[in-house]
């Protein structure tokens, strides 16, 4: 399991995640990279779930971005539709966050396409801990989006046994 959190604040959008890979109750690896920057489309992706499923979804999302000329809204909707209706894809067990300079979305295999109202969203086993921390930090500090993501992930790692302190954090300029 893992924790992925995204925060939009000021002129930044940030997606970060931890590096823990667990198999049952055993930590198999601590430095996995579950947040990726896709430079061709200036998009950040983050995944919670199995590695093979996450890579498959990232590749399919990139194909949808190519097909829709970088339009994240159309790419997200097309991927969600394909993920929900395709027999093989429907079995993928993962959640996906995607963000560009304008939009952030959570996607699931059940067809969910969620854009957070406040620019803060999280997924994974420690997602609710990171989400609560990020919301509190946004409401009560002037910290940057990057600092909030980092602090939120550390708080989640202190609470969730499936989250660690090995972080990958990617930042994009946000359109304000």
From TrEMBL:
Allosterically activated by HslU binding. Its main location: cytoplasm. Keywords: Allosteric enzyme, Cytoplasm, Hydrolase, Metal-binding, Protease, Sodium, Threonine protease. It catalyses: ATP-dependent cleavage of peptide bonds with broad specificity. One of its GO terms (molecular function) is metal ion binding. The active site is at residue 2. One of its GO terms (cellular component) is proteasome core complex. It is found in: Cytoplasm. It comes from the Bacteria. GO terms for biological process: proteolysis involved in protein catabolic process. CDD domains: protease_HslV. Its EC number is 3.4.25.2. Na(+) binds at residues 157, 160, 163. InterPro entries: ATP-dep_Prtase_HsIV_su (IPR022281), Ntn_hydrolases_N (IPR029055), Proteasome_sua/b (IPR001353), Proteasome_suB-type (IPR023333). The keyword Nucleus does not apply. Protease subunit of a proteasome-like degradation complex believed to be a general protein degrading machinery. Belongs to the peptidase T1B family. HslV subfamily. A double ring-shaped homohexamer of HslV is capped on each side by a ring-shaped HslU homohexamer. The assembly of the HslU/HslV complex is dependent on binding of ATP. PANTHER family: ATP-DEPENDENT PROTEASE SUBUNIT HSLV, METALLOPROTEASE TLDD. This is ATP-dependent protease subunit HslV. It comes from Neptunomonas antarctica. The lineage of its organism: Bacteria, Pseudomonadati, Pseudomonadota, Gammaproteobacteria, Oceanospirillales.
């Amino acid at each position: 399991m893992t924790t992925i959190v995204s925060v939009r604040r000021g002129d930044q959008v940030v997606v970060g995640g931890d590096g823990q890979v667990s198999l049952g109750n055993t930590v198999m690896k601590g430095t996995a990279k579950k947040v990726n920057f896709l430079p061709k489309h200036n998009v950040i992706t983050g995944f919670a779930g199995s590695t093979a499923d996450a890579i498959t979804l990232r590749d399919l999302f990139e194909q949808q971005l190519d097909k829709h000329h970088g339009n994240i809204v159309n790419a997200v909707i097309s991927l969600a539709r394909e993920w929900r209706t395709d027999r093989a894809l429907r079995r993928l067990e993962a959640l996906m966050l995607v963000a560009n300079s304008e939009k952030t979305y959570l996607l699931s295999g059940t067809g969910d396409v969620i854009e957070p109202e406040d620019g803060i969203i999280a997924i994974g086993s420690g997602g609710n801990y990171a989400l609560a921390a990020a919301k509190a930090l946004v409401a009560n500090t002037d910290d940057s989006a990057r600092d909030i993501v980092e602090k939120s992930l550390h708080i989640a790692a202190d609470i969730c046994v499936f989250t660690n302190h090995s972080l990958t954090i990617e930042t994009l300029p946000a359109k304000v």
